[in-house]
Amino acid sequence: MTNTRKAELEALCRRFRVELIDVLHAIQTGHPGGSLSCCEIVTTLYQDIINIDPKNPDMNGRDHFVLSKGHAAPMLYINLAEKGYFPKEEVKTLRQLGSRLQGHPCAHKLPGVEFSTGPLGLGLGAGLGISLADRLQGHNSYTYVLLGDGEIEEGAIWEAAMAAAKFKADHLIAILDYNGVQLDGTVEEIMPLGDVAAKWRAFGWEVFTCDGHSVTDFEETVRRVQAHKGSPSIILAKTVKGKGISFMEGKNTWHGKAISDTDYVAAKGELEGKA
Ligand SMILES: Cc1ncc(C[n+]2csc(CCOP(=O)(O)OP(=O)(O)O)c2C)c(N)n1
Ligand SMILES: [Mg+2]
């Protein structure tokens, strides 16, 4: 990635964080922490890596992205709008009755959403199915699945992990938003994961690690993963829940909470101070 592109992506991430806080404050509901956590991951993927065409959302041979941690839908919507799947103005309809932008992504309503999510634990199996279907059809495309670290406590994740290794699904790329925090507390408090890398390796996966807030480290890691053949891969992307707003960082209380006027002013001040 060139230095110019790096600066452009970082500027986009700063703008997307502001757009996220604006909409969540306006609607007085939603999940700030998990969207802020995956901002660089989703933005780098959508704006730089995945092969998709907003003018032809069903394009044959396209890459796929499954937001398995569906509560981060606003960050996905902001990226889809930026790509041109729908007007940016529509982001303001988030979570309103009748909107195509529901609190969790709905594939039947919104072009660009590949799989409906919300109930955690389903996206990896779905991504595996998509990846195998693409392989059967002779496509060289990749399927990316973004998982939460609380989410991987779901048993269905590990069933999908076993199957992906069995089928040598090397075009399936899981990304773990490894922020150490879930809804009710830290992952360590709720259900310790132990050695996450060792667990995935034991299930037959190739494991990569990166800084999930560095657009360059993330992109370079994805390129290395693409070169890996013979097994599925997971990127353990180290992140901070609530990243970018000091009083939200690392706090499970900001998993899902309305943003008060006072907190909104403070958050905007921090974000725009960095712009
Ligand atoms: C099956 C299921 N159980 C519980 C929930 C409620 N829930 C939504 S998000 C969440 C915590 C997720 O934590 P994590 O996967 O770490 O996400 P992140 O930290 O990236 O926001 C929970 C328990 C759900 N959506 N689905
Ligand atoms: Mg988490």
Describe this structure in words.
This protein has ten helices and five strands. Helix 1 runs antiparallel to helix 10 and helix 3 packs parallel to helix 4. It has a five-stranded parallel sheet with strand order 1-2-3-5-4, sandwiched between helices. The protein is globular, with a radius of gyration of 18 Å. Helix content is 42%, strand content 11%. It binds thiamine diphosphate and magnesium ion (MG). The site of magnesium ion has 7 residues, from loops.
Summarize this structure briefly.
The protein has 275 residues and is α/β, with parallel strands linked by helices. It has helices at residues 3-27, 32-37, 39-49, 73-83, 123-136, 155-166, 187-190, 196-202, 215-227, 261-273, and strands at 64-67, 143-148, 172-178, 206-211, 233-238.
The first-level CATH class name: Alpha Beta
| Terminal Cα span | 21 Å
Number of separate domains: 1
Strand order of the largest sheet: 1-2-3-5-4
- How much helicity do the residues have? 40-55%
Could you say which small molecules are bound to this protein? thiamine diphosphate, magnesium ion
How many β-strand runs? 5
Let me know the largest β-sheet: 5 strands, parallel
Range of strand content: 5-15%
Q: Provide the succession of SSEs.
A: HHHEHHEHEHHEHEH
CATH fold type = Rossmann fold
Mean pLDDT: 97
What low-confidence regions span 5 or more consecutive residues with pLDDT below 50?
none
CATH structural architecture: 3-Layer(aba) Sandwich
